[in-house]
Design a protein that fits this description.
The complex is a heterodimer of chains A (about 325) and B (about 450). Chain A has about 325 residues and is α/β, with parallel strands linked by helices. Chain B has 13 helices and 19 strands. The chains are: A alpha/beta (about 325), B alpha/beta (about 450).
């Protein structure tokens, strides 16, 4: 680890947060959306729209020309990994996949040593998915490569939050003053944490609904309301985001049984009627149909699930190109 | 230029001239000369010429510090620390006695293993008292041979790292130890309640997405053991208490006349759970203004040096514990010095071994609290010397005729905590890079100079 003695000994993080002027991108890593100002968030979403258009026109882009992007997914993922791979390739970068099964980590090498080895092969950006909260921060202070957090434990998933913000902005317009309901297991969700940061930074008010054990700790978060039941959260909501219930965890959860969860917090067409007319449904996927949302709702006109997936590539193109500046 | 000695060296003869001499037991605090002749404190006027005279104006002389809780890692984990390196760290920190905890490999659960450590420590840089395991291999079930261990001179028994798992074992231990005048030293943590937790439950844990250790994990064992101690008449000592709730329960039990004592670590007084998110100010200096939204700094956030068990407390808990030291509810400040080699720490926060070193920074953290007027200097020194010493049957006195056992330190001088400057074999502390008040100039244990720095 880098010697912390090099840095300020009496460090107060919020005494001097990064000052970033509009249009200027001063971040070396993308660890979470909490590091981004409202202007930076908007700029990133605008750039994603531009990227999407240029990609549709099959323009040859060269933002990552000569760069090697390493995808270090220490936890299974399909959509996030594929969309990072497509994004980096679309920007003219070269992509190296680190397969988990064959990785040195499985042989007992530490995360830091694995990443330093990748770096020595010429990889300049590492996209890291890891099961433990905070792993990208360890990576960022241990390596010279740029680190992009592709999901860490139950902490953060910044590019998911960016693609959700883009999808929402395009469906309901500017997010200032909007009521966005997030339903499910907030406590164990990196998607929820990052979305709370980005949506509240963009001016939305976020309502959380779910079993009390999964939502009550968030009551003092700025811009967040812990709803008094699902109907309270859905009432006049401009959009609703359902989270994936971790079936592997819910078997033994102390919060409630899966059956009770679905009966109390599951979303269907009739419950969505409480929300603003035509309010869209988002879900980070993969959906457990019939658990957190019904199959009918997941495939209805309200559903933006497909749009979220397709926005994943341009948003990640925007993020990678901003970091490469 | 610093030098180490050992408790096996020839006794010292020297004069500390014009020091501020604080003896909390005697309740004295005055400026005078301290004379040591052949290891014993004597009247300075009786000293003949030729004695090493050390100009000590502006420096403080206090009784030798005593640590109830240190991990020396020997046998079994000598890469992290040895009896030699750990006792040097102690001497450099002003300690003249430390208690070695039994969670070594193998555990110190038999008289021969206790004797092995005692033998290795015979020429160490401070006295080493052994805390034996409470149960065989620290399995929490089968209790150790308490009588034989007591005869070997142990300071108490503990399954530290864990509570004594079985309530029946805890009751039997309290019963048999009580008769011997020894404490059951409890690490109060209900293992099922704390399972999987890596930091203190609270807003910072929620923000960081780290599993939280609830205060009830400590309180439930404290209440169990208080009930058992009162039932059996045994003596329970709670080590490294970390919550206001546990402190209150102990204060109440003391009020009822229960045989209960406790200690707190310097890091649970000075550091807070916000340190895990990268905050670097002491508990009494304030809290982050925006703990939920302020950007995390990758240089400090999720620093595994902040992973410790029990985890760093909330600010409210830290300040309550400070008050507990002030009012005497807490008998001692003990370091829980827990060295780890770098490969156990240069990993993800949740994978890192819990623990931080503390022997070389304990006095300084206490002095920082004194500077901030959160603690009285006399009370700090009592909690670091006479308070803990009494619990292991030692005395501390600076009066003439006593064996010289003292620390000489400069309370105003500051030093930067750097890995290369530490006597410990390990450097796992989040204080690296920080400047702290209080530099130990000399430590005298049992009349022998065990450490001196920058003088003579």
């Amino acid at each position: 680890m880098r010697d912390l003695a090099e840095t300020s000994p009496r460090h107060r993080p919020d005494a001097g947060g990064a000052v970033v002027s509009k249009g200027h991108w001063a971040h070396r890593h993308l660890l979470d959306v909490d590091q981004l100002t409202r202007d930076e968030l908007e700029a990133c979403l605008d750039l994603a729209v531009e990227m999407r258009e240029r990609r549709e026109r099959h323009e040859a882009l060269d933002h990552l020309r000569g760069e090697i992007v390493g995808l270090a997914f220490m936890e299974p993922s399909t959509r996030t990994r594929v969309s990072f791979e497509l994004a980096a390739t679309a920007l003219g970068g070269q992509v190296v996949n680190l397969p988990i099964e064959a990785s040195s980590v499985a042989k007992g090498e530490s995360l830091v040593d694995t990443l330093l080895t990748l770096e020595r092969t010429g990889i300049s950006t590492i996209v890291l998915r890891h099961s433990m909260s905070g792993a990208p921060y360890l990576a960022a202070r241990s390596c010279d490569a740029r680190i992009v957090n592709a999901g860490d434990g139950t902490h953060a998933h910044p590019t998911q939050a960016l693609l959700d913000a883009l999808t929402l902005r395009e469906a309901v317009g500017p997010l200032e003053g909007r009521k966005i309901a997030i339903v499910g297991d907030i406590l164990h969700s990196r998607v929820a944490r990052s979305n709370i940061h980005s949506l509240t930074t963009l001016g939305a008010s976020v309502w959380l609904a779910g079993p009390p054990a999964w939502v009550s700790d968030f009551g003092d978060w700025p811009g967040v309301t812990v709803a008094n039941g699902l109907d309270d959260a859905l009432a006049d909501a401009d959009a609703v985001m359902a989270l994936r219930i971790q079936l592997e965890r819910s078997g033994g959860t102390s919060a409630m049984s899966l059956r009770e969860y679905t009966a109390t917090w599951g979303l269907d067409e009739s419950r969505m009627e409480l929300a603003r007319q035509g309010a869209p449904l988002l879900h980070p996927g993969p959906v457990n149909e019939g658990v957190e949302v019904t199959a009918e709702l997941a495939t209805s006109v309200r559903s933006l699930i497909g749009r979220q997936v397709s926005n994943g590539v341009p948003v990640r193109m925007a993020a990678l190109s901003l970091l490469a500046r | 230029m610093s030098r180490f000695g050992s408790v096996d060296d020839p006794p010292a003869t020297l004069i500390l001239s014009g020091a501020r001499v604080i003896d909390p037991q005697a309740g004295t605090d005055d400026v005078r000369d301290v004379a040591i002749l052949d290891g014993r404190l004597v009247d300075p006027r009786s000293m003949r010429g030729g004695a090493d005279r050390i100009e000590a104006a502006g420096l403080v002389v206090a009784p030798g510090l005593c640590d109830l809780h240190a991990h020396l890692r020997e046998p079994g984990m000598e890469r992290a620390e040895t009896i030699e390196s750990g006792t040097r760290a102690a001497a450099r920190g002003g300690f003249t006695t430390i208690c070695a905890m039994p969670n070594t490999d193998p555990a110190l659960d038999r008289p021969d293993r206790v004797a092995w450590v005692q033998d290795r420590a015979r020429s160490a840089a401070c006295r080493v008292r052994v805390v034996a395991a409470a149960t065989r291999s620290r399995d929490g079930q089968e209790i150790v041979e308490v009588g034989e261990l007591a005869a070997a001179g142990i300071a108490g028994v503990s399954d530290d790292g864990l509570s004594v798992a079985s309530e029946e074992a805890a009751r039997d231990l309290l019963t048999s130890l009580g008769a011997l005048g020894l404490p059951l030293i409890e690490h109060a943590e209900h293992s099922a309640t704390a399972a999987g937790a890596v930091m203190r439950a609270g807003p910072t844990a929620t923000r960081l997405g780290l599993a939280g250790w609830p205060a009830i994990a400590e309180l439930s064992i404290v209440e169990r053991d208080l009930a058992l101690a009162e039932q059996t008449g045994g003596w329970v000592h709670f080590t490294h208490i970390s919550t206001a709730g546990a402190l209150d329960a102990i204060r109440d039990a003391k009020g009822r006349g229960a045989r209960v004592t406790c200690d707190v670590t310097p890091h649970h007084l000075a550091l807070t759970d916000a340190w895990v998110a990268g905050w670097r100010a002491f508990s009494w200096e304030g809290a982050p203004e925006d703990p939920i939204r302020a950007p995390l700094d990758p240089a400090f956030a999720y620093d595994s040096a902040c992973r410790v068990n029990p985890p760093l407390s909330s600010r409210a808990d830290a300040l309550a514990l400070m008050a507990g030291v002030g009012d005497g509810t807490i008998d001692a400040i003990a370091t829980d010095h827990a060295p780890h080699p770098s490969e156990r720490k240069a990993v993800e926060f949740g994978t890192a071994a819990p623990g931080m070193i503390g022997l070389e920074t304990a006095l300084s953290l206490g002095l920082a609290a004194v500077e901030a007027e959160r603690l009285n200097l006399g009370r700090l020194l009592a909690a670091l010397s006479g308070g803990p010493a009494k619990l292991i049957g030692e005395t501390r006195s600076l009066s003439e005729g006593s064996m010289a056992d003292l620390v000489l330190f400069d309370p105003a001088a500051r030093w930067r905590v750097e890995a290369s400057g530490l006597a410990s074999s390990s450097s796992n502390t989040p204080l690296l890079g920080m400047e702290l008040p209080g530099v130990v100039r000399m430590t005298v244990a049992e009349g022998r100079v065990t450490y001196r720095d920058g003088i003579g």
